[in-house]
């Protein structure tokens, strides 16, 4: 039903404009597809929507969906239903927050570098633009909404924990790639990625030399890698009788076999401040 939409027509149109300039000829580049540059982990998080009779485990299910404007829009809507939050701390959840979540994930959705394009677009929404017509057509379709209960139950880290882990690890540096063998927002190493299931983008082989950096430099794939790693190694590292974000942060930094050692003071202080600040979520 229309009442369930989080993203208005103008919001989706400006998201399209900021992401790819609404290039309708865009297909897959470095694992991100079409108008909205959706990756496979993003699609998986949003309930693996499909076109027609495609099966979700079909090789073509992901590209067929995200290269179709209707299916891509539904995928984004599902993602925002799951991860919506006030990313920029202005007291409301609006297009700027959805744009940040779309670009960087809910755990790293600080103001993104493409805000200028987005803001300019939103200021022009009353002017005739081809992409606005495009998004109006998109929302003539009926959305399929997913149940997130199973997904949430399988993930040991909450969004807040992931966000604070990101902050403590790299300051959520969105330009971080690979340095000294550790990559991306979460500074994931090759050995960590292997223990986390060797997840990949799109249909990339885990044996490809680019599989590791492509995954861990993508916020969604990196987050899924961390969740897998924690499922494997979760334990009460600080012996306080519970397993929570402090334990996961120790495992992330020191490994599953060394997490009882002391954390670097700066890392712990950043993590602790972040978790206390977001304790109301």
TrEMBL record:
Glycosyltransferase listed as a keyword: no
UniProt GO BP: defense response to bacterium; killing of cells of another organism
EC number of the protein: 3.2.1.17
Keywords: Antimicrobial, Bacteriolytic enzyme, Disulfide bond, Glycosidase, Hydrolase, Signal
Cysteine-cysteine disulfides: 161-245, 166-172, 178-183, 215-221
Molecular function as annotated in GO: lysozyme activity
Highest rank taxon of the organism: Eukaryota
Catalytic activity: Hydrolysis of (1->4)-beta-linkages between N-acetylmuramic acid and N-acetyl-D-glucosamine residues in a peptidoglycan and between N-acetyl-D-glucosamine residues in chitodextrins
Alphabetical list of InterPro entries matching this protein: Invert_lysozyme
Pfam families associated with the record: Destabilase (PF05497)
Extent of the signal sequence: 1-18
The protein's name: lysozyme
